[in-house]
Specification:
This is Transporter. Residues 1-19 form the signal peptide. By secondary structure, the protein is mainly beta. The chain has a single domain (2-305), classed as Porin (Beta Barrel), CATH 2.40.160. Helices cover 8% and strands 59% of the residues. The chain starts with a helix and ends with a strand.
């Protein structure tokens, strides 16, 4: 895992040759018909590469038969996405994602468990016309624990989305996430709007992960909101296969500071183990949101590469 962190750090702390490459890449997108934003904002662009550490004080693994295991979790994650401009209106997204999690059970009679996860995200983005954008992605995942009877378990996440820009400051989003695994098949609606009050304040009222963003300058950003949980695990009753569950989320406050160029450092803290709205595809049941702010406090530290677009 240290190798992955070093590779990502070497990329985000880009030497001149990498910096020139990213400048050419950003210029190519700027000259295309693809519009990421029509208004001026202090908030940086989404990270295209990152490396981070998360600590969850209390987490639960769902065994699928009504039982659960409690543990603390430490996770190191690295990932990157590289967009390729295919035409003036189309972009192909290809990336990689690697995560290592150490789970320390609260029960003394259970051993510490390490889980390795790998994924290869692939996506497509199209600017249909002046106001409409559409896209989709697939993320095949594999998980493997270090226990004696553990086997690789496979999972497929994905989704399809559309964005309608109504004004320079207001846009709407529509779509659906899905998660297919050996443990469960889930679907999450993706619906809402994002409104930019001014160059400092933005409200992203998009379910299932709303957020309020405050950027007092081009070098500093605060975010209060919801994000996918990093400790939402499911384990089959034989104890040899793991998979993620996308219907859990974290509620946290983060502060992110520009270190140099496109490199940002983020510190976040909050609570996890919150349950979002989802649909069980197998039986059609709707799982309602569940909030318990007394469980799963967490802290995370991330190094992000956020290019200017």
């Amino acid at each position: 895992m240290r190798l992955f962190l070093c590779l990502t750090a070497g990329w985000v702390l880009a030497p001149p040759s990498h910096a020139d490459l990213m400048t050419e890449w950003a210029d190519a997108f700027a000259q295309s018909d693809i519009e990421f934003s029509r208004s001026t904002s202090n908030a940086p662009f989404l990270p295209l590469a990152f490396a981070g550490y998360n600590h969850y004080q209390e987490s639960d693994v769902d065994l699928g038969d009504g039982r659960s295991l409690s543990f603390t979790q430490d996770t190191v994650t690295q990932g990157a996405i590289l967009p390729f401009l295919m035409s003036d209106r189309d972009a192909l997204l290809v990336g990689e994602w690697v995560s290592w999690s150490r789970m320390t059970p609260e029960a003394d009679n259970r051993d510490t468990l390490d889980v390795m996860s790998v994924g290869i995200p692939v996506g497509w983005f199209r600017q249909r016309d002046t106001n409409w954008q559409v896209g989709g992605f697939l993320l095949p995942l594999g998980h493997k624990a270090n226990s004696e009877n553990s086997h690789w378990s496979w999972e497929l996440m994905g989704g399809g989305f559309a964005r309608y820009t109504q004004t320079d400051r207001l846009w709407w989003a529509f779509g659906l996430y899905f998660d297919v695994s050996e443990q469960s098949n889930l679907a999450l609606p993706y619906l809402g709007a994002s409104y930019q009050f001014n160059d400092r304040w933005t409200l992203s009222a998009i379910m299932p992960w709303p957020a309020l963003i405050y950027s007092p300058s081009k070098d500093l950003m605060f975010r209060l909101g919801v994000s996918p949980a990093g400790n939402a695990w499911q384990l089959d009753t034989r104890g040899d296969k793991f998979n993620y569950s996308i219907d859990n989320w974290d509620l946290g406050l983060s502060v992110e500071k520009r270190l140099a160029g496109s490199v940002w450092l983020a510190l976040e803290g909050g609570v996890g183990g919150l349950k979002g709205l989802s649909v069980d595809v197998d039986n059609g049941d709707w799982d309602e949101p569940h909030i318990s702010l007394s469980s799963s406090p967490y802290v995370s530290l991330n190094l992000n590469f956020r290019p200017s677009l």
